[in-house]
Amino acid sequence: MIHAILIPAAIASLALGSAPSAEPVQKKGDYVATFSAPSLFIEGEPYRVSVDIVGVGDKPCQMPAWLLTPASWLVNNKPLIRREAEGNIEVEPGQTISMTIDLAERINERFDGDTIDFRLSFAESGVDPIDVIYLGLPERGINFEELPKEQLGNYHVVLQTTGGAIWLEMWPDVAPNHVRNFLDLASKGFYDGSPFYRVIPLFMVQGGRAASGEAAPRKLDAEFNSRNHDAGVLSAARLPNDINSATSEFFIVHRNAPHLNGKYSAFGKLISGMDAVDKMVTGVEVQYALKNRLLDKQVRIDTNNPFFDMEVNRPNPPQVITQALVVKGTKSRPAK
Q1: Equal CATH topology for 2-135 and 149-335
Q2: Which of 18, 41, 248, 302 is deepest in the core (most CB within 10 A)?
Q3: What ranges do the domains of the chain cover?
Q4: pLDDT tens-place string over residues 82-104
């Protein structure tokens, strides 16, 4: 999540915990801060936030040094740590100062190890804070292959991708074996480093092949069900001529695809992260635009060639699952 804010140079004189009473007015020597922070805080994982501060106007300005420390971040409207950094930093017009910092340890200290959902904001900006959801990790050693169907719904999966986090709930009531398979592979790192290699705008994004080339450990019988393939639905990829050929590969529906209903095994749905899916779609728009221009000009191309199809549907830049994490799910989360 990204926010852009204008911070007047006079911010250094504001009292701790106070906020401007009105929207800041740009002066000849000010700076603009753009910050981003994940909307999910996952137990035991880094929580990296970023800030870009750019000098604006036509003369240098003074920026308080504490803006480049964890003290510039507010959790539930209180500074994460005391603002002890003294002095100012001169910012030239057009100069950019960038900072990325992992706040996980500091946030855990704030909550004394019992982290809960919280609100995060940057400095004294007056911009609406970010609502951050805390997700805990399950105990180690769970055998998802043997877990009773009734317990499978207690777990969700977060796919950390190059385009952002995708948070998925499971549907064990309609496709328990597909849920078991997905949880097992995610918990064992099978998906880590694997690409989304097939992306079709207004249809779906597909991934699930192991980056190492490792074969999936099992093949699944179809679990067709009454859940519709609406936008955000997680479903199992399979061979066109074999309904019982699903393995590790999956797809997330980009826009409603009713023609898939009852023909593919839907087993979960996105809770948040459609922005990450949209980024994958953006990654193939150039290829699709070129393809359409060539077809409009009646340039002879073999659209049935599998290599052509593969290159057109491959996102650029590549979109990869950097890490798949099984997390504890709660009944209240999907509704939020």
Answers
A1: no
A2: 248
A3: 2-135, 149-335
A4: 888 789 999 999 999 999 999 99
Q: Tell me 291's DSSP state.
A: H
- Among residues 162, 172, 131, the alpha carbon closest in space to that of 329 is found at 172
- Neighbour tally for 139: CB within 10 Å: 7
The pLDDT tens digits for 298-334 are 767 776 776 667 777 888 888 999 999 999 986 555 5
| pTM for the structure as a whole | 0.84
- CATH code reported for the domain at 149-335: 2.40.100.10
Distance separating alpha carbons of residues 157 and 40, to the nearest angstrom = 12
Give burial (CB, 10 Å; 0-12/13-18/19+) of 142: middle
Are the CB atoms for 131 and 121 separated by under 8 Å?
A: no
β-pair partners for 40 = 133
DSSP-derived 3-state class of residue 5: strand
C-alpha separations of 155 from 48, 71, 87, 139, 186 in Å: 24, 34, 48, 11, 11
Give alpha helix (H) positions in the chain.
104-110, 149-152, 176-187, 274-296, 306-312, 332-335
Residue 62 corresponds to which tokens in the numbers above?
């003074």
**Strand 96-102 relative to strand 164-170, pairing:** unpaired
User: Hunting for tokens 């009646």 — which residue is that?
Assistant: 298
Name the strands in the sheet holding 118-122, side by side, starting at the edge strand that comes first in the sequence. Answer: 40-42, 130-135, 118-122, 73-75, 78-79
> Looking at the chain, which runs of residues are DSSP E strands?
2-7, 29-36, 40-42, 48-57, 61-64, 73-75, 78-79, 88-91, 96-102, 118-122, 130-135, 155-161, 164-170, 194-200, 204-207, 233-236, 250-253, 266-272, 320-328
CA 135, distance to chain mean position in Å, is 14
